[in-house]
Amino acid sequence: MPENIVFKSNHGIRAKHLVRMDKRLLITSGILAFYFLLALPDCKEAPKEKPADVFFPLTKHWEKAIPHQEIPVGLTSISAESCGACHQEIYKEWKHSTHAVAFQDLQFQAEWKKDDILACLNCHTPLQNQQAFIVKGLMNGDYKTPLKEPNPHFDKKLQLESITCATCHVRDGKVIGTIGAISAPHKTIKDLEFLSEKLCVGCHNVVDELNPVLVCTFETGDEWNNNWAKKSGKTCISCHMPETERPVSPGMKRRLSHFHNFPGSGIPKFFDTEAKKLESLEIKESSMKKVYSAGETINYSLKVKNSFAGHSVPTGDPERFFLITFRLMDGQGNIFKEEQHRIGEEWQWYPVAKKLSDNNLKPLEERAFTFKYDTKKQGTLTFTVEITKHRMTAENAKHNGILGKYPLFVEVFKKQYPIKTE
Ligand code: HEC
Ligand code: HEC
Ligand code: HEC
Ligand code: HEC
Ligand code: HEC
């Protein structure tokens, strides 16, 4: 550890003996300055000493990498690719999940490179083996100045696997499972508590401030606590890793298994990939007539209910939102009337990060949206209703330099009604 460092706890409270040490330092430097002044009578001011750098140890779980993992007995590597030699289907599913690209993700690359914040890696490439540096603490509590040293065991290939099999399955030279398999070629341990929603919540439920303009606000675990899903025994795993029955390695007998694509918003990360989508919304519409007489009002209502997600929607990343668009057009596609409604959070990022509003749909919450239009004699019209789910706005994508390179939304629902007015 470099010299000239004082210890400080992460809560900004200085330990008593260290305060004393500080005082001693101050007294000595005071005396030195005094002699200096005497020796150089022309000097008006004592020279300013650079304050000692203060060392903050890492205290929060997400500030630390998962410690270096050795290869479990019976295996030759901990890479997903190597697990995939036997767990072929699970490997293919995982490869299409967003977990598998949490590091290569263009938005992630754009954001973390801005300030080179190594703490980001603890959830996006969580194993120490995947990180180029070993972080010991933070200088002056600032995430931009970690106290780091090169990691002699850094595995660049493993880094590109992001949230890999070993993140969730390898600890202390063993493969952690929920089966208690006796026929696995690798050392295995059964741990139902470890492979439960607690594993997911470790990354998906963190609310913290890294600095005034950089906050972590993932509350999916808290949102899940205490609602119908938890009460009926549905966990992150029941919904996001649905069950199936199959051999988990060729030649083995069929058994209970879990899909590993981690479906969610369904917004792919790259234009040439697909992402599996889960549906959270139950949608009810009022009926539309085919013919309206001039002067009659089109009175359409749409109800959306968060019936199927065990947390708010959107959840997690605060930039996500649903957009509901009502549009009335003539036969040539000219728009007479358009209305949009947004479901999501709104944040101010500068000068300090602050949530301005939040109308996310809570579990089982229903919301109604209406569209009204007084018809004239306009012949044939088309009324469209569209619901889209967005990762972020085009403006934010532009800000990150990824506009046009990054899929921004998916369609959730679309209906078209041809109408006659006479
Ligand atoms: C040489 C083939 C092979 C390789 C490589 C392999 N496994 Fe396995 N694994 C198996 C077999 C066979 C089973 C037992 C399946 C059964 O009993 O149905 C198993 C079981 C498991 C289980 C369930 C254990 C339990 O008791 O719950 C997990 C989890 C697992 N493997 C993960 C991994 C991971 C992660 C890797 C890579 C780091 C890996 N495996 C590499 C063949 C392999
Ligand atoms: C080591 C941290 C970590 C753990 C553990 C973890 N996740 Fe994730 N998860 C992430 C990150 C980071 C992303 C975002 C990746 C990206 O968008 O590039 C993500 C993305 C997801 C998504 C996809 C969201 C979407 O629609 O794009 C789902 C669903 C998900 N995780 C569910 C789970 C479940 C279920 C578990 C537990 C079995 C789990 N996660 C465990 C970090 C983690
Ligand atoms: C009862 C089922 C259910 C449970 C339980 C559940 N989820 Fe979800 N989750 C969903 C559905 C459905 C969606 C799709 C939301 C959408 O885009 O419509 C979703 C979306 C997500 C997303 C993507 C975020 C977004 O808005 O695009 C993440 C991340 C996620 N879930 C994580 C979790 C975690 C972590 C847990 C456990 C604490 C969990 N989920 C529990 C059903 C569930
Ligand atoms: C984000 C965490 C996570 C990642 C990443 C992950 N798994 Fe799993 N895996 C789980 C959980 C949780 C279970 C147990 C589900 C249960 O039994 O409730 C599981 C179960 C398994 C099982 C037991 C059989 C089954 O399907 O239930 C095998 C084998 C397995 N995983 C292999 C792998 C391999 C191989 C990879 C990488 C290609 C991988 N897992 C990546 C969380 C993960
Ligand atoms: C505590 C764990 C954790 C840390 C630390 C963390 N992330 Fe994430 N990150 C997540 C999870 C979980 C998700 C997925 C959220 C979701 O899909 O709702 C995610 C998703 C993302 C995404 C994708 C958003 C999207 O809409 O798909 C980006 C970009 C990202 N993180 C950047 C960062 C940056 C930059 C840092 C460091 C300043 C960071 N993350 C630190 C857990 C973390």
Structural descriptors:
binds heme C, 21% helix, Immunoglobulin-like, 422 residues, 6-stranded mixed beta sheet, 4-stranded mixed beta sheet, alpha+beta, 3 domains
Question: Could you describe the 3D structure shown?
Answer:
The chain is an alpha+beta fold and 422 residues long. The chain folds into 3 domains: 5-56, no CATH class; 61-134 and 149-238, no CATH class; 281-421, Immunoglobulin-like, CATH 2.60.40. 21% of the residues lie in helices and 31% in strands. It is built from 12 helices and 20 strands. Strands 13-20-19-15-16-17 form a 6-stranded mixed sheet, with no helix packed on it. The protein has a 4-stranded mixed sheet with strand order 1-2-3-4, with no helix packed on it. It has a 3-stranded mixed sheet with strand order 5-6-7. A hairpin with a 5-residue loop joins strand 16 (335-348) and strand 17. It starts with a strand and ends with a strand.
